[in-house]
Design a protein that fits this description.
By secondary structure, the protein is α+β, with helices and mostly antiparallel strands. It has 21 helices and eight strands. α1 crosses α8. The protein is elongated. The termini are far apart.
């Protein structure tokens, strides 16, 4: 061995350790910022809304009024047989105790129900302002005082209590979501690798990537004001572990192959990276591009989801293409024990399930394609059975105290508003606005409140129950009436108005973002695959998967899960994730199919070979990704359960039906046309026979 070769080997041995040192330095820098991510997380409904929404303007004006934004509660005292005089005295004492401990905006007044079973006390305080921790402390303090006594049931509801209960669920996402995700991925990796050590390596690297993503997300918020919610940070963690584990599965599978052909782990890893890194880079770039299309959304929560998801995917990508190879090379072949791939050995030949599935798709491609299309179409019809828009009180999987209070109020005060609508009117027009509101047929009462900074607050009670069709009509007609004449410039907000704005903004975002996602993903696929037909096939497939997954949701959300509504953002978010992640797997399959075609394989053989060689890895990756999103179904909020369920079902459909049967059978049926108009679409020309010429005359003499 010469000195030059010795130097080269020494450098190669040093590269993994240098990478490990760089990662230690990066984590040391990012660490202080990662721990601050929870401090900038906000989950108020108004934080999700666009700046132009009426309810957002109301919340901003409230912040500028004396005392700032108020936290509104409703204390509900109830006894089935009717409240006694002692019960009313107990209620008055508790309310007086609360008023003595907390600075309230107005003295509470009891409102008895007609049947005498219930007494409600609206309570409001501006002391917490917009600080969510102070709000939660205020609500907890009120609940400590307002307790059931002598058989009388006492519940604390209202917008402030609902927000506190939702905040408690979002606050609990960090730990349980992370631990459950790690446990699920660990079990799947153990089953896939059947090794006591190998499963731990990608899992640990994914954990490092998650920590990195938290620091980067915090920096993104500080630099650009990106909205960070409990939902977006939870989805970011899911993407880090799901997508990161997928990339690890592809890399480790290729690395294992190379170890049988290459003696040194460092050289084997270089070959593995050359083989799979282009596909991984292309797929992750497509996912990131699809998620970034959410920046076109008007809803703050959806717009913030795009960068957060992109941060998760890119951090996972960087970790799996740098840190994971370094760790694997340092550990050497023994990391695969007991199934160590020895140099020069041949892998054990086993009957391939995907070879059998591909063969069945290849024998009758048109029949398989038609049958799959009919099945997906039939499933998509179930989307017509999706329940209506999710109400605030129906957002919880389990019934918290705030929701129980609202249910009691709905029974005791039928057809009567129990949740205030807040109107902000310019002070010089407040009188005209108050008169207009009081004459409105859908309004039960209206009272002026605080004034300051040129604005006057008007508290309105509708005749309709909260978030009922009657109350919704009242809010919309109030907005129309107050937007003209002497009252022009007034804003209508409050909890119910916020829900209306959420629904309207989500509807607008679907019309804008969906076409942008489709066009962006299609253009990227055209550039990657150098074809028009193959990208259209992949995009059509993932759209069909999205429709079928929503349809399955429609069949189970109401009848099986008992959900009373569907989150307004479910359609848009599930579409973006399923299209981006579904195309991700399509790239792996089509990339291998194109590689086989370039090597001279016939179209049908190329499609079946691609499925046989990538099917196992794609199936493993799909199972991991579906399982990570399924973790969301164990969370306490209906919108998270619905989102996790639809994406998990969609990924499974895409992995085991669309990729295996439909895309393969369509590729076999289309043959070379699948690569049109690229050069692979043209039939290879047979070589021309050598030109025959008359033999030259040779002169002899």
């Amino acid at each position: 061995m010469g000195p030059g070769e010795t130097t080269t080997r020494t450098r190669r041995r040093a590269v993994p350790w240098v990478l490990l040192g760089l990662w230690v330095a990066v984590l040391a820098v990012v660490g202080p910022f990662a721990s601050k991510l929870a401090d900038v997380q906000h989950d108020r409904a108004v934080d999700y809304l666009p700046a132009s929404a009426d309810s957002t303007q109301v919340a901003k004006i409230e912040d500028r009024l004396p005392g700032g934004e108020s936290t509104e509660l409703v204390l509900v005292y109830h006894r089935d047989g009717g409240l006694s005089a002692a019960d009313r005295a107990t209620a008055a004492r508790q309310v007086a105790d609360i008023a003595g401990r907390e600075p309230l905006t107005a003295p509470p007044k009891g409102v008895p129900s007609r049947d005498g079973t219930t007494l409600m006390y609206p309570v409001a305080s501006s002391a917490p302002g917009t600080d969510e921790k102070k709000r939660d402390a205020f609500v907890d303090d009120v609940r400590d005082v307002a307790r059931s006594e002598n058989g009388m049931n006492v519940e604390v509801g209202g917008p402030g209590a609902l927000a506190t209960d939702a905040s408690e669920v979002y606050g609990s996402l960090g730990g349980p979501l992370l631990y459950t995700t790690v446990a699920v991925v660990a079990v799947l990796l153990i089953l896939i690798y059947r090794s006591p050590l190998l499963w731990l390596v990608p899992l640990a690297v994914a954990g490092v990537a998650d920590y990195l993503s938290m620091g980067v997300a915090y920096g993104l918020h500080q630099a650009f004001g990106t909205t960070i919610s409990g939902q977006s940070s939870g989805v970011m963690t899911i993407l880090v572990f799901g997508a990161g584990t997928d990339y690890a599965l592809l890399l480790i599978s290729r690395y294992r192959e190379e170890l049988r052909r290459v003696e040194r782990p460092y050289d084997a890893m270089r070959q593995a990276l050359r083989g799979c890194a282009p596909a991984v880079l292309a797929s992750s770039g497509t996912v990131a591009a699809g998620l970034l299309c959410l920046l076109a959304a008007d809803l703050n929560s959806s717009r913030g989801m795009g960068p957060m998801g992109t941060v998760g995917v890119l951090c996972a990508l960087v970790a799996m293409l740098t840190l994971l190879p370094a760790v694997l090379v340092v550990l050497g072949r023994r990391v695969f024990w007991p199934l160590v791939p020895a140099f020069g050995s041949e892998p054990r030949q086993r009957r391939s399930l995907f070879a059998a599935m591909g063969s069945s798709a290849g024998r009758r491609p048109l029949t398989v394609l038609a049958g799959g299309a009919v099945l997906l179409g039939a499933l998509a019809v179930g989307a017509l059975n999706l329940p209506g828009s999710l109400k605030q009180e129906d957002s919880f999987v389990d019934t918290p105290d705030s929701v129980a209070a609202m249910e009691t109020l709905a029974r005791a005060y039928p057809g009567q508003g129990t949740q205030p609508i807040t109107v902000m009117a310019p002070t010089d027009r407040a009188g005209a606005a108050l008169a207009e509101i009081r004459h409105h047929r859908g309004v039960a009462s209206a009272d002026p409140g605080r004034s300051g900074r040129g604005w006057t607050e008007i508290s309105v009670t509708a005749k309709g129950a909260p978030q009922s069709a009657a109350e919704t009509a009242t809010i919309k007609s109030l907005r129309a009436d107050l937007d003209r004449g002497e009252t022009k410039g007034s804003y209508v907000g409050g909890p119910s108005a916020q829900q209306i704005d959420l629904q309207d903004t989500n509807a607008r975002d679907r019309l804008v973002v969906v076409p942008i996602v489709l066009v962006s993903v299609l253009l990227i696929l055209i550039a990657l695959l150098r074809s028009l037909v193959a990208p259209l096939l992949l995009v059509a497939a993932v759209v069909a998967v999205w429709g079928a997954a929503l349809g399955i949701g429609g069949l189970v959300f109401g009848p099986l899960f008992g959900f009373e509504g569907t989150d307004p953002g479910l359609g848009l978010l599930s579409f973006v994730f399923l299209v981006a992640l579904g195309v991700d797997y399509g790239i792996f399959l089509m990339h291998r199919m194109r590689e086989e075609s370039l090597n001279g394989s016939e179209p049908a053989a190329a499609a079946l070979t691609a499925l046989r060689t990538t099917g196992g890895v794609i199936a493993s990756a799909g199972l991991v990704l579906a399982a990570t999103f399924a973790v969301l179904t164990n969370m306490g909020l209906v919108q998270l359960v619905e989102l996790g369920f639809v994406i998990a079902v969609g990924v499974l459909l895409d992995t085991f039906l669309v990729r295996t049967y439909l895309v393969t059978s369509a590729s076999v049926a289309l043959r070379r046309k699948v690569w049109w108009p690229g050069r692979l679409a043209r039939e290879p020309q047979p070589p021309e026979p050598p030109e025959t010429r008359p033999a030259p005359t040779v002169a002899v003499g």
